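Internal ticket #5521
Category: modeling
Description: The requester needs a full-assembly model to guide mutagenesis choices. All entity lines are attached below as received. Residue total reported by intake: 941.
Assigned to: D.W.
Attached entities:
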Amino acid sequence: MTRSQPRSTRPSNRSRSLREIRSRRPTRRSMWRAAEAATWAARWFALRRRGSGRLGAAALLLLCAALLTGARLGGAVDTAPSQPQETLRVSPPAGLPPLARWVDVHNGASYTVALPTSAPASLVAAGGERFTFTTPTGDQLVAALPIAKQADGSYTQSTPVNAATGALTCVQGILRLSHGSGGAEAIVYTLATHFDQYALVAYAHLVYASARDKLGATGVCSGQTGQGSEQAIDMLSGCTASACTSPVETAGPTVTAFESSVVGAAKRGGPQSWQQVYTGSSRVITAQYGSDRFGTLIEQQAQKQGRIKSITPKTTAPQVQFDTAGQAYFIVTDAVELDKGGGNTVTVTVTTYYLLESGQWVFWFSLPVGS
Amino acid sequence: MPPLMPSFAEPLGRPHRLRLPMAIAGNALILGLILACCNPGATSVTSHGAVTICAMDAARTLDFPTDACFSGTFDAVGQAESLRIAAVDAHGNPLKQQQLNVTVGGANARAATVTTDGGGLATYTYTAATEGTDTIRVAVANDSASATARPAVIHWVTQRHLTHPVILVHGIHEDAGDFAHQFNPGVVSDSDQASDAGEQTWTALIEALKLVYDPASMEAFCYVDDPAWVTAPAACPAVETAGCNTALPVGSATPNACSSQSSVDLNAVALAHVVQDLSNRTGGKKVTLLAYSMGGAIVRTLLAGCLTSSGPTDQQDCATSDQLVDNTFFLNGAQQGSWLLTVNRGLDAATLSGDGIPDAAHSPFTSVLPLIAQSINGVIGDKLGLNLNNGAETDLTPQSANVLAHNSVQPTSTVNLYTFYGDIELGMAVNFYTYTLPATDSLPLGDLVMLAQNDNPLASPLWGGGSLCDTCGSLVNGYHSNGRYHAWALTQRYTFNISGLAPLLSAPNAVSTLQGAIQSPVQHLNVSQPTTQAPGSAIQVADTTGRAGAATTDMPDEILLTLMRGDGLI
């Protein structure tokens, strides 16, 4: 490849996962069954061996240490109740979507995969399901690989694993190029992905090189990268290489915290008060308005329509849903009390949509009821 | 009067305290109406009414006389044109026996008075003696506020009978018989068109051309699998295969159907033969090509020399024919393919990229683009009959072998290239609880089928596009040019509220706030409709000839004037 695509600035899988494991604090939410953890540890360790096992023992020890401290590994997420009863409780989705979509909002990479509507217990599809991996520069790899269902209910999709070495086997593919005079590039690549049992959060790691780049292609296939122009790209959407965070558990607290921040900002007043609300919003807002502009616009609306005085959830247990494009969201209905001044208030019922964006629930948009 | 009656009856059943105020209000209304009735010159009713005017589209009148009145038309100097006028009051009721003032401005300025009939309708007929453009406005007598919101426009053209061969190359899933019939209704009868007014597109352009040029030298290109082979065989020139070529590539979804979904390559070679034949029949004159949608890809392939065709003489035939072309007008042409096909082949719509489209990592539209793509696919893609297994769809996919080939070389250097392309720009407002945040960023989606990119003739972007203007610089009044390259952007801006997309979350074909953009007159399917093409329509383009009488004019007028300028007629 001759294009000047930047290499991934993230640390390598191995060093990153070690740091993440070290920094993970034990919580009740992250308690996990040892058997499941062992399964995940063995699998992820095998996937990341890349033919060089010098640090294998050390990594395994660290993984075990992480388990002892309660770290959560792998793609399955635990939806055991852990929130106070007064907190909004969000139910997991009823089933897998036909199409699952994840975007890493930090680098623009995305991973979508077509899912069978009825998944057998052990192996979802032997022949392979179509996936699309989009690089941060917009180049796209469309191919099909098998999806495997794990014992804990989560899923993996990856290029084949060499049974002898445990390393990922490289395969050939076509990368559709978004820039330049146009065209496609023959590549060799390895792909390792995992996503949770609801297809809400995912991690994908693509390593590829142009088929014309002999050194790079050899590096991709041997797992010994750095000799050619290989590219390594992560797509993190609620999972790292080694762990996932349950978005089902965080949904309720997110709403509570967000609504609280809205009421608090409204009470304080002034454009600067809305920073926390801004950061809890989707890119529909953050990519369209700067923080200051957002605060100013909200304050202008407050002047015209009244200041938000309180937000009271009318929904008790919303369920996560998937839109037809594979994005996860849920809906909360609120009674929004507006202070019109002079002691006058009005209450409006509003439906608010929360979108799962890179594994975080964020405010998406509102829809006044009856509109 | 009638609508007021129920309001008088209702208070009878209401609490007593409401009766007196209601009675007073009712009496006041009655008094007002009595005064209005006794004073015909008063305009209290009509001042909020409306007067509309339209002109008959000659081509459409032939088959659909009751649905042929649009914002304007082309007429021959010396012929009479009848304009239809309708006047209604504020409630939409016809204004009967109402005097209307008609004012004609422009090349044939004049004034007149007409009176509506019992249905609120009137006709104004006049004959022009001077070539040029007239603008006709109507108002209720003594009520200038009732003037037509949009005047009618007539382009008066001196009728000629010159020979300048023209071939219209239609789009995917269309029927050449429709257009051949419009060019030469006495020669080509089209059985299925008579029942479908929606098939009568490009009528204003065809009528404009026929006023100046000999219809016998104008024809519609029949795809190798064109429905015209069945519905209107006379539409297809003898030089083409006598009969629909159903030998479509293996894997075609409709291998035995005549549906204009055969490959671009096959059709480019066939077009080469038609161009040669028409040029020969007109004494060696050069041919002008009008190319809509897929027709644009066919013409680009021809002008590139049919590089991916494999027949023994294909490339030679194309190389010979492209020297016989003088002008090409691309009308929402598929220069680089359709982004809808990119999506349909599995690429992620959320990461759409292109000229003016926010980068995926910093775009507010990422979460809505897949929904928008689905909605457009549902409404427009279905009408286009898109099926990925057909040769046409394969070739029209951005970065297909066909696109890469014809965009690997400059179009034939002797051809003037005129491009009109849709440029719908979406803005997205956001409801934040009870507040509405305005749209700031813009998402340009071209004509919704072809993106408004890429001017470079040698570019083949991942998501395709419909524009072409080599090194033309920035647009000025929607137009730019460089030598033989000329391009007009048909820019329309729409703002939708993201909350209005909520229905799409569970139903891709649901009605949403995207409807405004989908119904845009410059949307891919709508650009050919009479409401977009007719003189006086809202879609205006910069006049580059200086002969339109104004800085802007409609697309057919600009095309006609450009051809006439090239032929030394103006």
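Resolution: model delivered.
Comment from assignee: Residues 1-46, 249-253 of chain B have pLDDT under 50 and may be disordered.
Ticket closed.
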